[in-house]
Write a structure and sequence with these properties.
It is a single chain. With 271 residues, the protein is α/β, with parallel strands linked by helices. Helices cover 34% and strands 24% of the residues. The chain has helices spanning 14-25, 47-50, 64-67, 80-93, 106-114, 129-144, 167-180, 239-252, 262-266, and strands spanning 4-9, 29-35, 60-61, 73-76, 96-99, 120-123, 150-157, 188-190, 204-210, 217-224, 227-234, 258-260. The chain starts with a strand and ends in a 5-residue tail after the last helix.
């Protein structure tokens, strides 16, 4: 089979440069486009050089329509506005769209879902194998433990992260809510400060820490009477997310249109 031809969105950013490096190391994948914002000072720069590799001849450009003509997929770890701008073009071109962007709103999700009757989209708040297995365990624990166990989610990310809670924390919260059979939006406690009163029964709490260069630490705490169960994942390097995204893209090639998750990619959808 021919190599899958991929575009990296946000190619000048930290995750974009990591994706460029991982594509160069992945059999069956080749970089054919490097997308950046129209206002970026990096437009015209070589994507390989920016990623610490030899020049590869792929220049950063803001023209997704042009570069997508010869592509099979796009890896998109950008910001919500950029991802939503990419959705229509990716669908029109028939690209596999792997979305790792966090901070997406309900209306953003609706836009993404609207193209999945004709396009293949793999979307996840976290592309790592370990985190997705963690989410499956959280769902199972939430279902199995007595409702008297309070659920709290703690996450730590680098100081430059702009959204909170992290997409991964929300994914874990959603897994816990599904296990409990409740709607997360109706049972979510965030940003406690001051005289908040006692904890509301059934809430899933979130706490976000920011500092240093942490790639991502997540813990889900089930706090019961006289005991606590803590399920955790610690990311040591963002390369693991890039490998997951490449796995998702290669898995999705040739799939029927639809909205998929890493649970589908990893075959743990029924966990």
């Amino acid at each position: 089979m021919a190599d899958m031809r991929l575009i990296v969105a946000g190619a000048g950013g930290r995750m974009g440069r990591t994706l460029t490096r991982v594509i160069s190391e992945t059999e069956g994948a080749v970089l054919v486009g490097a997308l950046e914002a129209p206002t970026s000072e990096l437009l015209g720069k070589d994507a390989g050089v920016l990623a610490g590799l030899p020049a590869n001849g792929t220049k950063l450009s803001a023209d997704l329509w042009a570069m997508s003509e010869a592509a099979d997929g796009i890896l998109d770890f950008t910001v919500p506005a950029a991802t939503i701008a990419n959705v229509a073009i990716a669908a029109q071109r028939g690209l596999v769209h792997v979305i790792g962007t966090t901070g997406l709103s309900a209306s953003d999700d609706a836009v993404i879902k609207s193209v999945t009757d004709r396009a293949v989209v793999v979307k996840s708040g976290n592309m790592s194998l370990g985190v997705n297995l963690l989410a499956a365990l959280v769902r199972r624990a939430a279902k199995s433990l007595d409702p008297s166990f309070d659920i709290e989610i703690l996450e730590l990310h680098h100081r430059a992260k702009v959204d909170a809670p992290s997409g991964t924390a929300l994914m874990l919260g959603q897994a816990a809510a599904e296990g409990r059979g409740i709607a997360l939006e109706n049972h979510s406690a965030r940003g406690r400060d001051g005289m908040t009163g006692a904890r509301r029964d059934g809430d899933i709490g979130f706490a976000s820490l920011r500092g240093g260069t942490a790639a991502g630490d997540h813990s889900v705490i089930f706090a019961g009477h006289h005991e606590r169960l803590i399920l955790s994942h610690h990311a040591e390097d963002r390369t693991l997310f890039a490998h997951g995204a490449l796995k998702a893209a290669l898995w999705a090639q040739g799939k029927n249109p639809g909205l998929y998750s890493m649970f589908d990619v990893l075959g743990i959808g029924d966990s």
